[in-house]
Amino acid sequence: MSASYKILSQKDLDEISTERKAFARDVLIGLSEPRKWIPARYHYDDDGSGLFQKIMELPEYYPTNCEFEILKSKKSEIGDLMEAHQFNLVELGAGDGVKTSILLDHFMELGFEFQYVPIDISEGAMQGLIDSIQKKFPDIKATGIVAEYFDGLKWLGKIGQQKNLVLFLGSNLGNFSAAQAKVFIRTLWNTLNNNDLVLIGFDLKKDIDLMLKAYNDSQGVTSEFNLNLLERINNQLGGNFDISKFRHYATYDVFTGAMESYLVSLEAQTVFIEELSETFDFKPWEPIHTEYSYKYLVSDIEKLARDTGYTIEKHLFDSKKYFMDSIWRVQKTESL
Ligand code: AVJ
Asked: For 166-176, how does the pLDDT look when each residue is reduced to its tens digit (9 = 90+)?
C-alpha cells in the first residue's frame, strides 16, 4: 500500500475545536436546565452516523423503505423536471447516499451534466459516501462538504447563478419544530436562485403503533443510537456516564405530532464531565430529551411551501402513503 497523507491546516484544527466547544456548550446548557435535553444533531458523530445507517436497514424503520420505493418508481417524474441539463445536485445531510444513488444513476442515464454536492456533518460518513460514489459512478463529478446545514448553505450561496436541485431526504427536516423548519426552509430560499428546485422528504402522520415500532426497534439499534450521545460525551468531553444506568425511551405526542426520544436515568446518580468541570445530578427516572421527529399532514406541507416562497411542483407518495417526497420551485417574482 502506498503512503497516504492527511494535512490538517490551522483552519481544520480551529473547526475541530469549535465543533467540540459548541458540543460542550450545548451539553452544559441542556443538562443544567430543569428539563434536561441535548440537541438531536449531536447524534451524528462518526459512530452515530454508522448506527443511523443500521437503523435505515431495519424492517421497522419504514421511512427509508418508503422513500426507496418513491425514488425508484418516480425517478423519471423527477428527471422530467430538470429542463436545464446542467445543474448542481446538492444534498443536505447526505449520510450514506444509498437512496440518492437511484437518482444519480437515472440522471447519468439521461446524460445530464450535473455536479453532485453532498453536505454532511460526519467526516466518516462523507468519506464512505465519496468512496462508494467513486466506485459506483466513476464519471460523476462530486464535491463533498463536511459541514452542518447552515454552513453548507453559506457555501451554496457563494456558487452563483447555477441551476440547483437541492435534496433534503429522509425526513431530516422532522428534527425541527414548525418554527425552526420555516426559518430553515426560508434560509434555503434566500441562498437559491429563482426557479431552483428542492425535493424534501416528509414523514406523514399515520397509525401510532407503526411509528412507535419504528423508534423502538426489536434489535435495539435505535436504543444504541440514542445512548451513543452519552458515549460521545464520555469520549469527547471526558464524561463518566455509566451507559447501563440509562434506557432509551421513545413516545408519540399526539398534540404536537412528534415522535420524541429520551434517555431515562434508571437510578439516582451523579455524572461528572471533565471538560465542563461540572457535575450533574439525576433523580431516579429523570429523562434527558434527545430528539423530536415531527410528522406532517399534506396540508401542513403545502402551507409551509406557500409561507416560505415556493410553489409546489409535485407530491410523490409511496404506495402506502406513509411518506412523501415533495418537490418545490423557488419563486422570486414581484408577485411575492
Ligand atoms: C435522521 C432525523 C430522519 O427522526 O426518524 C431515527 C433519526 N432517530 N430513529 C428520524 C432517527 C431515531 C431520523 N432522522
From this structure: 999 999 999 99
Strand 197-203 with 258-265, pairing: unpaired
Q: pLDDT tens for residues 48-97?
A: 999 999 999 999 999 999 999 999 999 999 999 998 889 999 999 988 88
Query: How far is the C-alpha of 130 from the C-alpha of 181, rounded, in Å?
Result: 28
Q: In whole angstroms, how far apart are CA 242 and each of 138, 205, 314, 325?
A: 45, 36, 48, 40
pLDDT digits (tens, 9 = 90+) for 115-126: 999 999 888 889
Looking from the CA of residue 170, the nearest atom of ligand 1 is 3
Give the residue from 15, 109, 77 showing the smallest Cα distance to 314.
77
The span from the first CA to the last CA of the chain, in angstroms, equals 58
Atom of ligand 1 at shortest range from CA of 214: 9
**In terms of DSSP bridges, do strands 323-330 and 310-317 run parallel, antiparallel, or are they unpaired?**
antiparallel
For 132, counting Cβ atoms within 10 Å of its Cβ (0-12 exposed, 13-18 middle, 19+ buried), the class is middle
CA of 225 to the centre of ligand 1 (A): 10
CA of 85 to the centre of ligand 1 (A): 33
pTM: 0.93
